[in-house]
Amino acid sequence: MELRDLVRESALGGRLVLWEESARDGAQGKTLMSADFRVHLAREQGLLFGDDGPRHVVFAAGFPAVCQEEFAATRRVALEAEGFVSPAAVCRGTLKDVQQACEAVRGVPHARVMIVVPSSDEMADAMVHQPAVKALDDAAPLVLAARANGVIADVCFADAPRADVDELVRAANELTAVGAGVIVIADTTGDLLTECCAELFEKLAGRVADEVVLASHLHNDLGLGLANTLAAVRAGVRVVSSSWLGVAERSGMVATEQLLFLVSQRADELLGEADLWHTSPDLTRLPAIARQVSAEIGLPLTVTTPIVGTGVGTISTGTPFVRPETFQPYDPAVLGIEPTVVLTHLASARVLRAVAERAGLDLDRAETAAALAWVKAEAFRRNEAVIPDGDLAGFVGRLRAAAEALRAGEAVVLPNPFPLTSVVAATAPDVVNTAKGRPADQAVALWLADDERWAEFAEALDLDGPTREFARDLLVRERLTLLLPLVPGRVPDWARQATRDDHALVFGACWSPLLPVLAGVGPLHVSSANRTGSSPAASAAEARAMFAAEVHVLDAADGAPAAGRAATTTLRVSRDHGLVHTRSGAQDREHASPDAYIEHLRTR
């Protein structure tokens, strides 16, 4: 019976054929594709090549001998993917298995069976308890039996690298002569180094008859599946086994999407002027198919999965954002992927502004700096690199709302850097006190967040020049609260409400993302974020539960946990770097005593 073999025609004409194994060998990777999905995948893979799918794709639909369900799934692919691919059933080298496999694909144009035969003595002993030469000889009647059933038979030489090359050549020639379509050379154990793989295929290609069509089936146990398959292609092999996402036995095999992309995009470098296609593959379909396979078998695509991973076409750092072509081996548009800017802790101001614009935000310089600091801190707080656009928009919205509330004279609870608790701030001390539920005239601290405000205030300090600088350093670097002596009559009007007994209480901490909130608001007064009788709030959630609804709470965080926070340590400063400890707090708690902490400060 004359059977037209499109796969042989393609291979002998120099065209490349993919032997897809994700439905069959992928099961040995502890995955399972439903019958519905096998049909879907076969169709999708065939459509990569338009009407020439059957010339470029052999779809190994299943191993019918496994169970009735596997037989049924294989049969459905054969019937329902007709015209999209050349469907194949895989079987062992027994007449019963071959007849069952033929039954699974019977009556379908271009259907095939692949008969797995051990080709090394070691593998033959394990599989059929006979010498390899006997197993190879027994394959010829099986090929004839398949053809008698109207099905093309291919033969897979299992464990070919450990086989006798003379026997492989002899068997390949004899099996082809009796009607075998393709002879599959399988590195069953995945042990081949690339140089050895190239040598094996070159040796076989140089010695088999011209009519023999060799195929590769190369596993990835050593991470060399792709390199070995390319070596086989360079040696003249035109039928290559692969699997979506590389799923197969043990560490898998060469990934279909990677192999197809490379032989499509880099064929000239790999093979010279080879014409591999009846119809060139539509690479823009690869990412979608890979995502579908991932969802079906539960094998996730990662950021670093080549060709189809979630990181393809994404940019998160400054220089690649400006010149992406300098940092990528191919244009993602080839895959139908538009470059995407992703916001992470590595972001530059340019990257952040690009994401902000995508989110509909027009940020000024101060807001950009604030948002950038927040993104980096927030990524570490979550222990997740990517910050979604919506989360950035939410932070900017909260930042602007907090600034507006301060300008309106309202009380706002603001976060501090670890290990400090939150604070409540307002432009008037009585507003702070009212929010805290205590007498309106109680002393609260000044918050001098900018150098200009400090310079004006420093003129009123009864301190020598070096001690003023020392005090400023303690405020900015150590983030303490300080009691600073004042010269009567020099105190600015805006600072009078924060003075008692010719001293001002000055708060020094400032988490950098807050600077845009504070800029332009004017002098601020601040106190620990707590209602009288309660501990200071360590988080926005605690503050929101503690304060009245009209007190605005900026829901943000510095990347550190809420646990272990405390209010600031307070010191009294006098001339000549004089320091007196007046209240314990977050900064001094790890020191043996207040004096030990002061000595630590002097040493610094």
Principal-axes geometry comes out as elongated
- Count of individual beta strands: 20
Outline the biggest β-sheet. Answer: 10 strands, mixed
SSE class: alpha/beta
Number of helices: 24
User: Any low-confidence stretches, pLDDT <50, length ≥5?
Assistant: none
Task: Briefly summarize what is shown.
This protein is of the alpha/beta class and 604 residues long.
Throw out a few tags for this protein.
604 residues, alpha/beta, ten-stranded mixed β-sheet, eight-stranded parallel barrel, 24 helices, 20 strands, 15% strand
Characterize the structure shown.
It is built from 24 helices and 20 strands. It has 604 residues and is α/β, with parallel strands linked by helices. Strands 11, 12, 13, 14, 15, 16, 17, 18, 19 and 20 form a 10-stranded mixed sheet that branches. An 8-stranded parallel barrel has the order 1-2-3-4-5-6-7-8, surrounded by 9 helices. A two-stranded parallel sheet has the order 9-10. The N and C termini lie far apart (94 Å).
